[in-house]
Specification:
Low-confidence stretches: 240-250, 271-277
Mean pLDDT: 90
EC number: 3.6.-.-
Radius of gyration: 29 Å
Bound molecules: guanosine-5'-diphosphate, magnesium ion
Structural class: alpha/beta
CATH topology of the largest domain: Rossmann fold
Largest sheet: 7 strands, mixed
Helix content: 40-55%
Domain TrmE-type G: 214-367
CATH superfamily of the largest domain: P-loop containing nucleotide triphosphate hydrolases
Number of domains: 3
Binding site for (6S)-5-formyl-5,6,7,8-tetrahydrofolate: 20, 81, 120, 438
CATH architecture of the largest domain: 3-Layer(aba) Sandwich
Number of strands: 14
Main location: cytoplasm
Family: Belongs to the TRAFAC class TrmE-Era-EngA-EngB-Septin-like GTPase superfamily. TrmE GTPase family.
Order of helices and strands: EEHEEEEHEHHHHHHEHEEEHEHEEHHHH
């Protein structure tokens, strides 16, 4: 493999910038451009040395240079890291002198790709690297680092190993039926257990998705029920440092707060009404747009008024969603009985009464999980669903030959998940999402 280099720190001004080189020629390059008390190739692995980078006879910068020798490096290859002064110019000058014939610019994610190809990490761990970089909340970062340390991989490998045992047993039965002794192993029970384990992982999907992407909560309801008042109250109670930004394509205002380490974005539907007759249609059609983005929806109802047709239209629209009905204006007298097919909470956006209770209910919505939580990616979810289907097929088939076939395809899917089976298109789509220098 050729030697690659890239600036690993983000562009712009900063205290330092780091340039990374990986590959066989890393040390030669360091020799060529670096001058210090000792020469990089004489240095032991994982040592830092102070010196200067030159482009020919021109001094570029004063730097720290780290030498890391194969195989105990991020990529598994010889790696050199140069920490120089930050800013737009310095790191680029150094990179240019590195690339000068000896190395080429790394593609996005290529260092991590090499780590994967050299068996330093599996594909699930490689994907976790990107999750760490992209984490926007404490929780997302925590789950990402646990995946990088191999917790998810371990679970997947455990499932795979059980299936391999089942496969071996079944093949023995098929090939040597005369030797088959009843040793008490119930193959089908093992397959059922494995399927349950896959379902446990899938059960945490919704929660994992919230941790990764945050959660979006549209506030909907007819005009004048207090949606905007509630929106403002929520953002204020949380002392969120947020500026509601008017949606550019939709008539919404958004504000994000962090609840229990999860990023929660509330959306207030605002906007103008065109004419009196259109109020209802407008309200509903605007709501539809944000509802489709919502993970949990707050339906605001003015409890000082009886339910009207417009309220009922909203209730119908939301029937199959995760909804919390917020009966607002509890500071004034209630007018009417409410038959609402959702969980409800009585609050006052005006006085702040019971807003904490509303928060508890929101918390409940996102912390409920029927399974073990991992921050699964869409790719993982698709594969695990496939594994589950194969195992269902395996349990349904009534010949050993068919069962073993389904078990094998489940194993293959899992090997695709960890990257033991390498698919060019999958690698391409994963690593092209990375930043350059990672
Ligand atoms: N008494 C009382 N009035 C409220 C409350 N929430 C909102 N309002 C009033 O209801 C009216 C409509 O509120 P607004 O937030 O603009 O409703 P929206 O059209 O649903 O966004 C305003 O006059 C608010 O002051 C509440 O909890 N109690
Ligand atoms: Mg409003």
């Amino acid at each position: 493999m050729d030697t690659i280099a890239a600036i690993s720190t983000p562009p712009g001004e900063g205290g330092i910038a780091v340039i990374r080189i990986s590959g066989e020629r890393s040390l030669d390059i360091a020799e060529r451009i670096f001058r210090g008390k000792s020469s990089p190739s004489k240095l032991e692995s994982h040592r830092v040395i102070h010196g200067e980078i030159y482009d020919g006879d021109n001094l570029i910068d004063e730097v720290l240079l780290t030498v890391m020798r194969s195989p105990h490096t991020y990529t598994g290859e010889d790696v050199i890291e140069i920490s120089c002064h930050g800013g737009e110019v310095t790191a680029n000058r150094i990179l240019k002198s590195i690339l000068n014939g000896d190395a080429r610019l790394a593609r996005p994610g290529e260092f991590t790709l090499r780590a994967f190809l050299h068996g330093k990490i599996d594909l699930i761990q490689a994907e976790a690297v990107e999750d760490i970089v992209n984490a926007r909340t404490l929780m997302a970062q925590r789950y990402a680092i646990s995946s990088l340390k191999g917790e998810l991989s371990e679970r997947i490998n455990g499932i795979k190993e059980s299936l391999k045992r089942v496969e071996t047993l079944m093949e023995a039965f098929i090939n040597f039926p005369e030797d088959a002794t009843e040793d008490g192993t119930d193959i089908y029970a093992d397959i059922r257990d494995t399927k349950a384990e896959v379902e446990t992982l899938l059960g945490g999907t919704r929660c994992g998705r919230f941790i990764r992407n945050g959660i979006t909560i549209p506030i909907v309801g007819r005009t004048n029920v207090g949606k905007s008042s509630l929106f403002n109250r929520i953002l204020e109670e949380e002392r969120a440092i947020v500026t509601p930004i008017p949606g550019t394509t939709r008539d919404v205002v958004e504000g994000t707060v962090e609840i229990d380490g999860i990023s929660v974005t509330f959306m207030d539907t605002c906007g103008v009404r065109s004419s009196r007759d259109q109020i209802e249609a407008e309200g509903i059609s605007r709501a539809k747009k944000v509802i489709s983005d919502g993970d949990v929806i707050l339906l605001v109802i003015d409890q000082s008024q009886p339910l009207n047709d417009e309220d009922r239209a909203f209730i119908d629209l939301l029937r199959h969603k995760y909804v919390i009905a917020v009966l607002n204006k509890c500071d004034i007298e209630r007018n009417g009985e409410y038959e609402i097919p959702f969980e409800e909470v009585s609050v006052s956006a005006k006085t702040g009464e019971n807003i904490e209770r509303l928060f508890d209910m929101i918390r409940n919505e996102f912390s409920q999980s029927s399974g073990d939580i991992f921050m699964l990616k869409e790719r993982h979810i698709n594969i695990l669903n496939r594994v589950r289907e194969s195992l269902e097929d395996a349990l349904r088939s009534n010949t050993l030959e068919l069962t073993v076939y389904d078990v094998k395809s489940a194993i293959e899917s899992l090997e695709e998940m960890t990257g033991e089976i390498k698919r060019e298109d999958v690698l391409e789509s994963i690593f092209s999402q990375f930043c350059i220098g990672k």
